[in-house]
Design brief:
Helices cover 75% and strands 0% of the residues. It is an all-alpha fold. Helix 2 runs parallel beside helix 17 and helix 18 runs parallel beside helix 20.
Length: 477
């Protein structure tokens, strides 16, 4: 059954409720309920049952379950590296022993460059940038909203621009299907590589983040957040509800141990290293064919096991203490894990409504000037990613349509693919149900809605700049 324009209402209602009430989980569930009201033909009891079943059925999907387990276990590691003195040792190394970080700008640049250099997986990129710099950020009174923005706006864009990761594997698979179907006669790898310069939004987002770091000239809700942090010393707003419990990130260092930055660096290094290894193994020797969710799951499990052996071997703690701290960290991740579960559930409901297909049909029904193909694909992909909360799901729908449209109009296929990827990432940055946006709030211990609210104005400016560039490139051919 086709639901047409009604399919757009649940994601819009969810966003408005979340921003107005500040209650993410309640807003997500109401969005799920409204989706199922439409699907059930406006039968409330049936819709309620479908909504509850939908939340439970999230765990029947392997990739979703692995992501949720990742969120829980990362809470355990965050607590452990705090208790072991690893975070404190790292902060002291950068600020006191070496004097490498001496200002707010230095901290923000550290987060920025971690986001640029670590491109193996968007979740790990965000996690690493947020975890490594959060204590430094608090020390120099940088708002959590700003830190979340820096982490969020460097992760997915960089993973798209340097596709030696699960992102590249996903996009290559989509392109290969189009080549196999005879839509275009070209090498999928060549198409992907030549589309990189046309990922305009990603390039603009990375440049604008750097601009705001260097100038400090913020505006809108972000300016209020930064003014609050600088003038009042409050890195979080008074009404903020961080998605990570305070005990996860504020555990005191265990008494009687030697503080060392290696207690943080080595577990994180194992986490980062295991990701490409996992991609290589699951791709049977080809990283670009590997499974991102499975590799992420392997990485966090390996890092957790390594941390246990390492800390117990160094006599930082015994097995019982290790498990106690691990459980505390896992428990502190309940809020963000609940958000992920409900976000995945509403994503499934929106898929059933056919929101993505409806938006794609708008493109098919247009009489398009070839010069405007790129900007139209970009905008529709942005709306789709915002509504569905998934850039990868958007790629699966929009890249084939973009390719087919470009071929039919004798347009620039690389521009069309780049526009679809750009739009998917742009919409993700606006969406409160996007897993990468949720991960940014988690890694920086931010209030999720405050992160979304402060980031959206910057995303819209980047989108406007990108749209103009896509139009210019369209006329240039």
């Amino acid at each position: 059954m086709e639901y047409g324009i009604l399919s757009l209402l649940p994601p819009v209602i969810t966003l408005l409720l979340a921003i107005y009430t500040g209650q993410v989980i309640i807003s997500l569930f109401l969005g799920i309920l409204f989706s199922n009201l439409i699907i059930s033909g406006w039968h409330p009891l049936s819709a309620l049952n479908m909504s509850l079943e939908g939340v439970i059925n999230v765990f029947s999907e392997g990739w979703a379950t692995k992501t949720i387990i990742f969120a829980f276990l990362i809470g355990g590691i965050m607590t452990l590296i705090q208790v072991s003195g690893g975070v404190q040792g790292f902060v002291e190394f950068l600020t006191e022993k070496k004097g490498l970080i001496k200002s707010r700008r230095g901290v923000m640049l550290l987060a920025y460059f971690i986001g640029i250099v670590v491109f193996i997986e968007s979740s790990i990129t965000i996690l690493l940038a947020g975890t490594v710099t959060r204590d430094l950020s608090d020390k120099y009174k940088i708002s959590r909203e700003n830190l979340a923005y820096i982490c969020d706006s460097t992760s997915a864009p960089v993973c798209g621009l340097i596709p030696l990761n699960g992102w590249g594997a996903t996009i290559l698979g989509i392109l290969a299907a189009q080549v196999t179907a005879g839509v275009i006669d070209a090498n999928p790898v060549t198409i992907l590589i030549k589309s990189i310069p046309y990922q305009i939004y990603s390039i603009v987002a990375i440049i604008t983040v750097f601009y705001f770091i260097m100038t400090g000239k913020h505006f809108g809700p972000m300016k209020k957040a930064e003014d609050r942090a600088i003038n009042e010393g409050k890195v979080l707003a008074d009404d903020a509800t961080p998605v990570v419990e305070e005990e996860v990130i504020s555990m005191p260092v265990k008494e009687g141990i030697k503080i060392s930055m290696w207690n943080m660096i080595l577990p994180i290094l194992v986490l980062v290293t295991m990701m490409p290894i996992g991609l290589f193994i699951t791709g049977e020797g080809n990283m670009l064919a590997g499974s991102g969710s499975t590799s992420l799951f392997w990485a966090i499990c390996t890092a957790t096991a390594f941390t246990g052996f390492f800390y117990i071997g160094k006599k930082i703690m015994n097995l019982k203490e290790f498990m106690d701290y691990l459980y505390k960290g896992i428990g502190g991740m309940a809020p963000v894990s609940m958000i992920l579960i409900f976000a995945f559930a509403i994503g499934n409901s929106i898929t059933t409504l056919g929101t993505g297909e409806y938006l794609a049909s708008l493109l098919n029904g247009m009489a398009i000037n070839p010069a405007f193909t790129g900007v139209i694909v970009f905008i529709l992909a942005g709306f789709m990613a915002f509504a569905t909360g998934t850039s990868w799901g958007t790629f699966a729908i929009m890249i084939p349509i973009a390719l087919q449209t470009a071929v039919a109009l004798d347009g620039n296929i690389y521009l069309a693919v780049g526009a679809a990827i750009s739009g998917g990432i742009m919409g993700d940055h606006c969406s409160p149900i996007s897993d990468t946006t949720i991960m940014a709030s988690m890694a920086t211990a931010s209030d999720h809605i405050h992160h979304v609210r402060t980031q959206i104005p910057y995303v819209l400016i980047n989108a406007a700049i990108s749209s103009v560039i896509f139009i210019i490139l369209g006329y240039m051919g």
